[in-house]
Fold this sequence. Notes:
Blueprint lengths: L3 H28 L9 H5 L1 H4 L7 H11 L6 H4 L7 H31 L4 H9 L10 H11 L2 H26 L3 H4 L15
Helix pairs in contact: 1-6, 1-9, 7-8, 8-9
Amino acid sequence: MLSVDVGAKFLGVLMSAEVLSLALVTVVILAQGGGPEGLGFAASFAPDNIFAGGFAGSAGIALTFAFASYIGFESTANYGEETRDPKRTVPIATYLAVGLIAVLFAVTSWAMVSGLGSSHVIDRVTELSTVNNVPLSDPAAVLFAVAEEYVGGWLATLMSWPGAFESVRRAARVSEQRGPLLLLHGPHRRAPTAARPRER
């Protein structure tokens, strides 16, 4: 099995590619002056627009996506055992992760709202994310559509790869922790490598 160190490095490459992809889309949109209505900074962050529809409607959905954007920062603790000084490294890595996520997603969200058009962004997001007549079933499709429109289809394809590789990495991590045959035997059986040694 691959070591955790190799998995962490591979994940680092994928995360770097993901961040660079978001940054590229953002820079291209901002460099072009936004979408059909311009950059629309005030419209993107106006409280009336953010909370439009109330918490039971589009505002609640937007806040849910905002909170979901932070999922993963707690992974810094998972790799604490791989560092020389976990008590110092883990807090620094966690605060840096939260700060970078906040800045990156705030600027990227502004660029995407501007790219879609601030006055009808809710309608466009609903249209792009609808699958089988169910709105917001595929929110990632919105980002892929914006990337394809402003940068090119190659970037939309590239942006879909990290998610697939991350799923494989998580499965491999579970297999390393609980035994290499866990995925074959199921969660209720222990792999032979995890069996208790025979007492003498």
